[in-house]
Amino acid sequence: MIPTMPRSCVRALSWPVVWLLAGCGARSAQATTPLAALTGTWEVVHVAVDHRDQPHWLYFPEDPRLLGRSVSISASAISIDNNTRDCQNPSVTALPKAGLQEFISQRFARPPQEGTPTHPTLSDFELAMADAAVLPEQIGCSNGASEWNASWIVPVAPDHLLTNYDNSGFVLVLERRNAASPIKPSFACAKAQSAAEQAICTSAALAGYDRSVAAAYRRALSLAGEESADVRREQTHWLTTRNACGGDAGCLAKSMRERTDQLMQQ
Fold first, then answer.
1. pLDDT by residue (tens digit) across 62-95?
2. Is 108 helix (H, G, I), strand (E, B) or coil?
3. Which residues form a coiled coil (predicted)?
4. C-alpha distances in Å from residue 91, one per residue of 30, 120, 144, 211, 254
5. What is the largest CA-CA distance in the chain?
6. What is the residue extent of each domain of the chain?
7. What DSSP element (H or E) covers 69?
8. With contact defined as beta carbons under 8 Å apart, do 35 and 89 qualify?
9. How far apart are CA 207 and CA 6, in angstroms?
Protein backbone atom coordinates (compact mmCIF):
# COMPACT_ATOMS: atom_id res chain seq x y z
CA MET A 1 0.00 0.00 0.00
CA ILE A 2 1.24 3.48 -0.84
CA PRO A 3 1.46 5.47 2.40
CA THR A 4 0.44 8.88 1.04
CA MET A 5 -2.01 7.87 -1.69
CA PRO A 6 -3.63 4.61 -2.89
CA ARG A 7 -1.70 2.76 -5.55
CA SER A 8 -4.81 2.85 -7.74
CA CYS A 9 -4.61 6.65 -7.71
CA VAL A 10 -0.98 6.53 -8.82
CA ARG A 11 -1.80 4.13 -11.63
CA ALA A 12 -4.82 6.08 -12.77
CA LEU A 13 -2.95 9.34 -13.21
CA SER A 14 -2.51 10.36 -16.84
CA TRP A 15 0.19 12.92 -16.31
CA PRO A 16 1.07 15.41 -19.06
CA VAL A 17 4.60 15.37 -17.70
CA VAL A 18 6.31 12.59 -15.66
CA TRP A 19 9.63 12.86 -13.87
CA LEU A 20 11.43 9.62 -14.62
CA LEU A 21 14.86 8.65 -13.38
CA ALA A 22 16.25 5.32 -14.57
CA GLY A 23 19.79 4.05 -14.63
CA CYS A 24 21.33 3.36 -18.05
CA GLY A 25 24.13 4.40 -20.32
CA ALA A 26 23.83 7.78 -21.97
CA ARG A 27 22.98 8.58 -25.57
CA SER A 28 24.22 11.70 -27.35
CA ALA A 29 23.72 14.79 -25.19
CA GLN A 30 21.89 17.87 -26.45
CA ALA A 31 22.00 20.56 -23.76
CA THR A 32 22.35 20.97 -20.02
CA THR A 33 19.21 22.03 -18.13
CA PRO A 34 18.78 23.36 -14.57
CA LEU A 35 17.75 21.29 -11.53
CA ALA A 36 15.43 23.99 -10.17
CA ALA A 37 12.20 22.12 -11.03
CA LEU A 38 13.40 19.04 -9.12
CA THR A 39 14.65 20.81 -6.00
CA GLY A 40 12.96 19.67 -2.80
CA THR A 41 12.22 16.59 -0.71
CA TRP A 42 10.43 13.55 -2.12
CA GLU A 43 9.16 10.28 -0.66
CA VAL A 44 9.07 6.83 -2.24
CA VAL A 45 5.35 5.96 -2.29
CA HIS A 46 5.43 2.93 -4.62
CA VAL A 47 8.04 0.29 -5.48
CA ALA A 48 7.35 -1.31 -8.87
CA VAL A 49 9.18 -4.32 -10.34
CA ASP A 50 8.79 -6.34 -13.52
CA HIS A 51 6.23 -8.99 -12.55
CA ARG A 52 7.25 -11.20 -15.49
CA ASP A 53 10.90 -11.34 -14.48
CA GLN A 54 10.69 -12.53 -10.89
CA PRO A 55 13.84 -14.74 -11.03
CA HIS A 56 15.95 -11.59 -11.43
CA TRP A 57 14.33 -9.51 -8.68
CA LEU A 58 16.70 -7.73 -6.32
CA TYR A 59 13.75 -6.05 -4.62
CA PHE A 60 10.11 -7.05 -4.10
CA PRO A 61 6.94 -5.12 -4.97
CA GLU A 62 6.50 -2.47 -2.25
CA ASP A 63 9.85 -3.55 -0.80
CA PRO A 64 10.27 -2.10 2.73
CA ARG A 65 13.95 -1.40 2.03
CA LEU A 66 12.88 1.26 -0.50
CA LEU A 67 9.27 2.18 0.32
CA GLY A 68 9.06 5.31 2.47
CA ARG A 69 12.60 6.49 1.79
CA SER A 70 13.25 10.21 1.48
CA VAL A 71 14.97 11.66 -1.57
CA SER A 72 16.50 15.12 -1.34
CA ILE A 73 17.40 17.10 -4.46
CA SER A 74 19.30 20.38 -4.41
CA ALA A 75 21.86 22.21 -6.50
CA SER A 76 24.62 20.73 -4.34
CA ALA A 77 23.50 17.09 -3.98
CA ILE A 78 20.95 14.36 -4.69
CA SER A 79 20.52 11.75 -1.96
CA ILE A 80 18.27 8.94 -0.79
CA ASP A 81 18.30 8.04 2.91
CA ASN A 82 19.33 4.40 2.59
CA ASN A 83 23.05 4.78 3.30
CA THR A 84 24.12 4.97 -0.36
CA ARG A 85 26.44 7.62 -1.79
CA ASP A 86 25.06 11.07 -2.53
CA CYS A 87 25.38 12.60 -5.98
CA GLN A 88 27.61 15.63 -5.46
CA ASN A 89 27.26 18.78 -7.61
CA PRO A 90 24.57 17.17 -9.82
CA SER A 91 23.84 18.25 -13.39
CA VAL A 92 21.22 17.14 -15.91
CA THR A 93 21.79 16.88 -19.64
CA ALA A 94 18.97 16.74 -22.21
CA LEU A 95 18.73 13.60 -24.36
CA PRO A 96 16.59 12.66 -27.41
CA LYS A 97 12.81 12.49 -27.00
CA ALA A 98 11.27 9.02 -26.53
CA GLY A 99 7.92 7.43 -25.69
CA LEU A 100 7.51 6.37 -22.05
CA GLN A 101 6.77 2.78 -23.12
CA GLU A 102 9.89 2.70 -25.29
CA PHE A 103 11.96 4.17 -22.48
CA ILE A 104 10.88 1.52 -19.96
CA SER A 105 11.15 -1.38 -22.41
CA GLN A 106 14.68 -0.45 -23.47
CA ARG A 107 16.07 0.51 -20.06
CA PHE A 108 14.75 -2.62 -18.33
CA ALA A 109 15.26 -5.22 -21.07
CA ARG A 110 15.04 -8.78 -19.77
CA PRO A 111 17.64 -11.51 -20.18
CA PRO A 112 16.54 -13.98 -22.90
CA GLN A 113 14.21 -16.61 -21.46
CA GLU A 114 11.71 -18.94 -23.05
CA GLY A 115 8.15 -17.66 -23.24
CA THR A 116 8.91 -14.13 -22.00
CA PRO A 117 9.37 -11.14 -24.33
CA THR A 118 12.71 -9.36 -24.11
CA HIS A 119 11.13 -5.96 -23.52
CA PRO A 120 8.66 -5.31 -20.65
CA THR A 121 5.62 -3.04 -20.85
CA LEU A 122 4.40 -0.37 -18.49
CA SER A 123 1.74 -2.78 -17.25
CA ASP A 124 4.42 -5.38 -16.45
CA PHE A 125 5.65 -2.85 -13.88
CA GLU A 126 2.05 -2.02 -12.90
CA LEU A 127 2.54 1.53 -14.15
CA ALA A 128 -0.79 2.47 -15.76
CA MET A 129 0.46 5.71 -17.25
CA ALA A 130 -0.17 7.15 -20.68
CA ASP A 131 2.48 6.25 -23.25
CA ALA A 132 3.25 9.91 -23.85
CA ALA A 133 6.37 11.38 -25.41
CA VAL A 134 8.95 12.25 -22.76
CA LEU A 135 12.19 14.22 -22.82
CA PRO A 136 14.87 12.11 -21.13
CA GLU A 137 17.72 13.77 -19.30
CA GLN A 138 20.83 12.27 -17.75
CA ILE A 139 22.12 12.95 -14.25
CA GLY A 140 25.82 13.54 -13.81
CA CYS A 141 27.66 13.66 -10.46
CA SER A 142 31.09 15.08 -9.68
CA ASN A 143 31.71 11.91 -7.66
CA GLY A 144 31.52 9.19 -10.30
CA ALA A 145 31.09 6.40 -7.71
CA SER A 146 27.62 7.63 -6.68
CA GLU A 147 24.74 5.28 -7.47
CA TRP A 148 22.97 8.29 -9.03
CA ASN A 149 25.68 8.91 -11.60
CA ALA A 150 24.51 8.35 -15.23
CA SER A 151 20.86 7.82 -14.17
CA TRP A 152 18.09 9.31 -16.30
CA ILE A 153 15.43 11.96 -15.74
CA VAL A 154 12.36 12.80 -17.83
CA PRO A 155 10.12 15.81 -16.97
CA VAL A 156 6.27 15.06 -16.40
CA ALA A 157 4.33 16.25 -13.23
CA PRO A 158 5.66 18.70 -10.63
CA ASP A 159 4.59 16.51 -7.70
CA HIS A 160 5.65 13.01 -8.84
CA LEU A 161 8.80 11.27 -10.09
CA LEU A 162 9.68 7.78 -11.19
CA THR A 163 13.21 6.66 -10.37
CA ASN A 164 15.66 3.82 -10.76
CA TYR A 165 18.61 5.53 -9.14
CA ASP A 166 21.11 2.66 -8.98
CA ASN A 167 20.61 0.76 -12.25
CA SER A 168 18.70 -2.10 -10.60
CA GLY A 169 15.47 -3.57 -11.95
CA PHE A 170 12.93 -1.46 -10.07
CA VAL A 171 10.95 1.72 -10.65
CA LEU A 172 10.18 3.99 -7.71
CA VAL A 173 7.26 6.40 -7.68
CA LEU A 174 8.21 9.51 -5.70
CA GLU A 175 5.81 12.10 -4.38
CA ARG A 176 6.87 15.62 -3.45
CA ARG A 177 6.80 16.28 0.29
CA ASN A 178 6.06 19.69 1.77
CA ALA A 179 5.41 21.23 5.18
CA ALA A 180 1.75 20.19 5.03
CA SER A 181 2.52 16.52 4.27
CA PRO A 182 1.43 14.32 7.20
CA ILE A 183 3.93 12.30 9.23
CA LYS A 184 2.69 8.70 9.36
CA PRO A 185 4.58 6.10 11.42
CA SER A 186 3.16 2.62 11.99
CA PHE A 187 1.74 3.59 15.38
CA ALA A 188 -0.54 6.34 16.70
CA CYS A 189 1.56 9.36 17.62
CA ALA A 190 -1.04 10.38 20.19
CA LYS A 191 0.11 7.36 22.19
CA ALA A 192 3.86 7.92 21.73
CA GLN A 193 5.62 7.55 25.08
CA SER A 194 9.35 6.96 24.64
CA ALA A 195 11.77 9.61 23.40
CA ALA A 196 12.36 7.40 20.35
CA GLU A 197 8.66 7.29 19.46
CA GLN A 198 8.33 11.03 19.97
CA ALA A 199 11.30 11.66 17.66
CA ILE A 200 9.81 9.37 15.00
CA CYS A 201 6.55 11.33 15.19
CA THR A 202 8.36 14.58 14.34
CA SER A 203 10.27 13.28 11.30
CA ALA A 204 8.75 12.09 8.02
CA ALA A 205 12.00 10.27 7.19
CA LEU A 206 12.05 8.40 10.52
CA ALA A 207 8.33 7.65 10.22
CA GLY A 208 9.04 6.11 6.81
CA TYR A 209 11.66 3.85 8.34
CA ASP A 210 9.28 2.91 11.15
CA ARG A 211 6.72 1.78 8.56
CA SER A 212 9.45 -0.17 6.78
CA VAL A 213 10.38 -2.07 9.94
CA ALA A 214 6.72 -2.84 10.59
CA ALA A 215 6.19 -4.12 7.03
CA ALA A 216 9.38 -6.20 7.08
CA TYR A 217 8.40 -7.63 10.47
CA ARG A 218 4.97 -8.69 9.17
CA ARG A 219 6.64 -10.34 6.19
CA ALA A 220 9.15 -12.17 8.39
CA LEU A 221 6.36 -13.45 10.63
CA SER A 222 4.38 -14.70 7.65
CA LEU A 223 7.40 -16.73 6.49
CA ALA A 224 8.61 -17.91 9.90
CA GLY A 225 6.17 -20.77 10.45
CA GLU A 226 7.13 -22.66 13.60
CA GLU A 227 9.92 -20.14 14.27
CA SER A 228 7.55 -17.17 14.59
CA ALA A 229 8.14 -17.03 18.37
CA ASP A 230 11.85 -16.44 17.69
CA VAL A 231 11.03 -13.57 15.34
CA ARG A 232 8.78 -11.95 17.95
CA ARG A 233 11.43 -12.36 20.64
CA GLU A 234 14.10 -10.82 18.40
CA GLN A 235 11.78 -7.91 17.61
CA THR A 236 11.15 -7.22 21.28
CA HIS A 237 14.90 -7.22 21.93
CA TRP A 238 15.49 -4.92 18.96
CA LEU A 239 12.88 -2.43 20.21
CA THR A 240 14.87 -2.12 23.42
CA THR A 241 18.04 -1.27 21.48
CA ARG A 242 16.14 1.16 19.24
CA ASN A 243 14.66 2.95 22.23
CA ALA A 244 18.17 3.33 23.66
CA CYS A 245 18.77 5.83 20.83
CA GLY A 246 16.40 8.22 22.57
CA GLY A 247 15.79 11.21 20.32
CA ASP A 248 19.00 10.80 18.30
CA ALA A 249 17.71 10.83 14.69
CA GLY A 250 20.91 9.41 13.21
CA CYS A 251 20.95 6.52 15.67
CA LEU A 252 17.26 5.80 15.08
CA ALA A 253 17.62 5.80 11.29
CA LYS A 254 20.62 3.45 11.44
CA SER A 255 18.86 1.10 13.85
CA MET A 256 15.68 0.91 11.78
CA ARG A 257 17.54 0.59 8.46
CA GLU A 258 19.61 -2.31 9.78
CA ARG A 259 16.57 -4.01 11.33
CA THR A 260 14.63 -3.73 8.06
CA ASP A 261 17.52 -5.31 6.15
CA GLN A 262 17.82 -8.06 8.74
CA LEU A 263 14.11 -8.90 8.64
CA MET A 264 14.07 -8.96 4.83
CA GLN A 265 16.79 -11.62 4.85
CA GLN A 266 14.72 -14.04 6.97
1. 999 999 999 999 999 999 999 899 999 999 888 8
2. coil
3. none
4. 13, 29, 12, 32, 29
5. 59
6. 7-177, 189-264
7. none
8. no
9. 18
The answer on pLDDT for 25 being more than 50 is no
* Per-residue b or e along 217-231, where b marks 16 or more CB atoms closer than 10 Å to that residue's CB: bebbbeeeeeeeeeb
DSSP state for residue 210 in the 8-state scheme: H
- Cβ atoms 164, 49 nearer than 8 A: no
Contact 100, 20 (CB under 8 A): yes
Would you say 37 and 155 are in contact if contact means Cβ atoms under 8 Å apart?
Answer: yes
Q: What residues contact 112, with CB distance under 8 A and at least 6 apart?
A: 118
Distance between CA atoms of 193 and 59, rounded to whole angstroms?
34
Total count of residues recorded for the chain: 266
CA dihedral 186, 18, 42, 4 (to 10 degrees): -20
The answer to whether the CB of 26 falls within 8 A of the CB of 138 is yes
Q: What per-residue confidence (pLDDT) applies to 206? A: 98
Q: pLDDT category, 157, cuts 50, 70, 90?
A: confident
Nearest to 138 by CA among 117, 153, 158: 153
Separation between Cα atoms, residue 125 and residue 119, nearest integer Å: 12
Edge-to-edge strands, sheet with 32-33: 32-33, 91-94, 137-140, 152-153
* Cα end-to-end distance, the chain, whole Å: 22
DSSP per residue over 130-171, as a string? ---EE--EEEE-SSTTSTTTTBEEB---TTEEEEETTSSSEE
For residue 183, give the 3-state DSSP assignment: coil
Residue burial 18-29, b: 16+ Cβ < 10 Å; e: rest: bbbbbbbeeeee
